[in-house]
Design brief:
By secondary structure, the protein is α/β, with parallel strands linked by helices. The chain is built from 15 helices and 34 strands.
């Protein structure tokens, strides 16, 4: 890398097509920038991130014309890494680069005020140049990468990612909080638009997981602690007690009938019962039993050797803790169904014949509560007419719902309506909707054929009120917004097509892994277009509905992408990490240990001999939490130092 003496700054202004140049006068901005001290070159290009734009910068570095680079363009989240590579390729330390965001922060927020946008852009360029003058070369740190991966969540996303990595030869730890893998897909009867049997697709995958020698399957387990950094994550996992020896248990089921305790079956959403000792569903993997100790009365019947010949019952069973080291992590925590109870106008929880879409899914299932023959919960009679209501909890801009579209609801309602008509052709089925969103491959054709061939009636309008008559029928009051007619319709059963929400445990997992969430509550990707499976915590990837609502094909595709991202990182054997970390000025440190107690990454130790704090640059993420807390001003964050910040402030004060 070239030696740095006095600052010779090159400023490169991007038009971003017309995103910037359509609002801001680039020629005037170049003229302003050229007058700033230490700026020796000012150039512009329609797309600075293009090959030609990058070559402008690289050629000027190689010619020795500049020794610092400022690019005025879009957000650093988009292309900071791109321009750092350009600097490095040209022989310049990549951390002698600064990016001024004049798109999101200037032109886009001042679309109708070109003069204001121009003034803001001037400020951002001035600030970037001021900081660039104070930048120091930094050296990247290298760490070894463990060739193993932790996957949190054993649904269809977690399973596909696990199999892909295991088949490449990596050790995989698949952690699932429930006693079996399979996730919500195990509750489905068929999948749209092909109407394949869900169990037929899922069950072989579940068996493959259990058989694969490179996969350590940890069901009924939870991740309780995560330390370390990319390549070297130290994970603590709690294996909850099954109270049944998982090695001795043969899954014979001889313990079921003698068990006197009957309780609610969560897998069937309370529409069937189970015993205190149970397997969640017939195709469960693993196929060993678990005792629900919250329901068990400890009568000891199941422990009798005449009942359990292998003597697998372990009432003294306790939680176990497993510590592992992995190089990468994939989060596939899945989703929970929106609870429509809070939307009082729809009668869910008050009227027995108002059910959720997932309850309908179980009623349609051949291994569900009614073996695939849906009936009214109130009297178990066949409904002669059924209505579906879309967007329950989704696209809802008032209190009690979510603003986003859950994507799958239009299609699963169409699928369920079609299934019901196949079983009972003479019944009437209605779907109340706002807009039908049939976005995937073959989905529009599936929707159209359902109307044409099955006679499903689609009514555009949100239901305003739901009532119940003496026979427990459901009275619906709505409006057909296409014909502008008020509607009062009596049906035997109403199905609420509920949206998807982040899994209830996602907040805890996000805290353990320092993952950010977007406004909808799902995990936020590093970049929505360029890095949709990466997170801002390096080495941690997201897949499936943990990242946002999506259907099964998109979930599987994203899981494969996450597996590929983890694999490419582990394949390197070692990885460079950005040298952003805090630094202790030893003679100022008073040894108060305040910083140590606040560090979210456990990166600060204490030197008992010197009585001062010591920062591990490998563990430190440069978050800056410790800096304002230090009473002695003994901590600085490299690449974001006080003198760099002061240079920016002084520029603005003196403009």
């Amino acid at each position: 890398m070239m030696e740095i003496s006095t600052s010779k700054i090159g400023v490169y202004i991007c038009h971003c097509g017309s995103n910037i140049s359509g609002i801001i006068n680039i020629d005037q901005l170049k003229e302003f920038t050229s007058k700033i001290s230490d700026v020796v070159i000012v150039k512009d290009h329609k797309f600075m991130c293009s090959d030609k734009g990058q070559k402008l910068i690289k050629n000027d570095i190689e010619s020795g014309l500049i020794n610092r680079v400022v690019v005025a363009a879009c957000s650093p989240r988009m292309h900071e890494f791109t321009f750092r590579i350009v600097c490095e390729d040209g022989g310049l330390n990549p951390f002698l680069f600064e990016q001024a965001n004049i798109r999101e922060h200037a032109s886009w927020v001042n679309l109708h005020d070109p003069i204001g946008a121009f003034e803001v852009a001037k400020d951002h360029i001035n600030m970037a140049i001021a900081k660039a003058k104070e930048l120091k070369p930094l050296k990247k740190l290298k760490v070894n990468v463990e060739p193993s991966c932790l996957i949190i969540g054993g649904g269809i996303a977690g399973m596909n990612a696990a199999l892909d990595l295991a088949n490449e030869g990596y050790q995989v730890y698949l952690v699932e909080k429930n006693p079996t893998i399979g996730g919500h897909m195990a509750q489905l009867d068929k999948t749209f638009p092909t109407m394949d049997c869900s169990a037929c697709i899922l069950s072989p995958r579940m068996v493959d997981i259990a058989r694969n020698k490179n996969i350590t399957l940890l069901t009924y387990s939870e991740v309780v602690d995560v330390k370390g950094i990319v390549g070297n994550f130290n994970i603590k996992i709690m294996k909850k007690p099954h109270y049944v020896d998982q090695i001795k248990c043969t899954g014979c089921g001889s313990c079921l009938d003698p068990c006197p305790v009957v309780c609610r079956n969560e897998f069937d959403l309370g529409m069937t019962s189970r015993k205190a000792i149970y397997i969640p569903f017939p195709q469960a993997v693993p196929e060993q039993y678990t005792i629900d100790m919250d329901k068990c009365i400890k009568c000891g019947i199941c422990a009798d050797p005449k009942v359990c010949e292998p003597e697998a019952i372990k009432f003294e069973d306790k939680s176990e803790f497993l510590e592992i080291k992995v190089g990468t992590i994939i989060v596939a925590t899945g989703w929970d169904l929106y609870d429509p109870t809070e939307l009082k106008q729809y009668g869910y929880g008050r009227f027995p014949n108002v059910i959720s879409s997932l309850q309908m899914e179980r009623l349609l299932s051949s291994f569900g509560p009614l073996l695939g023959n849906p009936a009214r919960p109130s009297d178990l009679k066949l409904p002669q007419n059924v209505a579906f209501l879309q967007c329950v909890g989704s696209r809802y801009y008032r209190e009690g719902g979510n603003q986003y579209c859950s994507r799958v609801c239009c299609m699963y309602a169409t699928k369920q309506a079609r299934q019901y008509k196949e079983k009972h052709p003479n019944t009437e089925v209605y779907i109340f909707y706002i807009d039908i969103r049939a976005f995937g491959k073959g989905y529009e054709e599936f929707y159209e054929s359902t109307q044409r061939e099955y006679g499903i009636r689609y009514i555009r309008g949100r239901i305003a009120e739901v009532l119940e008559d003496k026979e427990k029928n459901i009275i619906i009051r709505s409006e057909d917004t296409l014909s502008q007619q008020l509607i009062e319709l009596k049906v035997n059963m109403l199905v609420l097509s509920c949206g998807l929400e982040p899994n209830i445990d996602s907040a805890k997992i996000g805290s353990l892994l320092s993952l950010q969430k977007s406004s909808d509550g799902f995990f936020m990707e590093a970049h929505p277009k360029l890095r949709p499976i990466d997170t801002l915590t390096e080495g941690v990837f997201i897949a499936g509905v943990a990242q946002g609502p999506k259907d099964i094909p998109d979930t599987v595709a994203q899981a494969k992408g996450a597996a590929s991202g983890a694999s490419s990182l582990m394949r390197k054997g070692e990885i460079e990490i950005e040298p952003y970390y805090a630094i202790i000025t030893e003679h100022l440190c008073s040894g108060c240990k305040i910083c140590q107690s606040l560090c979210p990454y456990g990166a600060i130790d204490f030197n008992e001999y010197k009585k001062i704090a010591k920062i591990n640059p490998i563990l430190c993420k440069g978050c800056g939490t410790c800096i304002p807390a230090c009473p002695s001003d003994a901590i600085e964050q490299n690449h974001f130092t006080s003198y760099q910040l002061n240079s920016i402030i002084n520029i603005l004060k003196n403009k």
